[in-house]
Amino acid sequence: MPRSGALALALAPARPGPAYRISLKGAACALSVTLVASHAHAAAITVTDDSGAVVTLQAPAHRVISLAPHTTELIYAAGGADAIVGAVSFSDYPSAARALPRVGDNQALDLEKIVALKPDLLVVWRHGNVAQQIDALRALGIPMFESEPKRLPEIAQNLHKLGALMGTEAVADHAAADFTARIDALRARYAQRSPVRVFYQIWDNPPMTLSGQHMVSDVIALCGGQNVFASLAPIAPTVSTEAVIAANPEAIVTGRYDDSPHAGTDDRARDASSPQATPALPKSLDRWKAWPQIAAVAHDNLFSVNADWMDRAGPRIADGAGELCAELDVARRHLGR
To answer: Which of 189, 195, 199, 211 has the CB geometry, 3.0–4.6 Å to 232, for a possible disulfide?
Structure first.
């Protein structure tokens, strides 16, 4: 599974191989008995997930498995540290998530291991998991919440709903309010500033970007930017070098992976009011220096943001937004605005 969600959208998961076409009948029966017995006398909890499906639990979930890195972050933020019992690869935040049992990645889920962990709730990402395996898990009767936030307010909504499902409403509601307040503060500060045309690059060869359907486009607008490829139909389209030149972005931004000792810790990321040393630019931006006619190149407006903050649809996108907003202010200065 790619570390961040944006690239995973562009890479279609492989079909599960023979090793994963397994018989789960016995384990499924045991799991079914466990679920029925544990929920026999509880009051129902009902929410609607991001697919529009109604999710009903007879009691708060206390054995939750996360099937995407962003859902791992959401579960912890919503107060689920004591409830989460497994996660997929690259679920590395908060730091406690690194110790969770691994149940596969976006290429293949370990269905037997998932069932053996006896989950009473799966939190899944339809675009990041193998659809056939998700359907197989659903057929076993394991309650499933699909998390697919596409707009910034939907992150707060996911927190509220996961808190309801886990019985951790107080923590989840506080996290949602904090996230919303941070986003609102950034919007009030930056959204009306002089617009900057932005090309957000998620892959360099061939160039790939994110359209207006992706939450990153919302973040660009929040910072007073304009996504030059917002109108494209695919959520993660491939674009030609010629198309980028023709769009003439005033800033080119890509994700970087901060693997320094402080990366992935629980410290809040810097925002526009807390500057720190500028990270080295990823080499994937070097190719654009061959076209000095692009405004972003001519004005030295090549930037990077922490990819895990920006591309995962979790609360840390507020940290990524703060970083991007600060960089677009630098771009404005370089442009003489």
So the answer is: 211
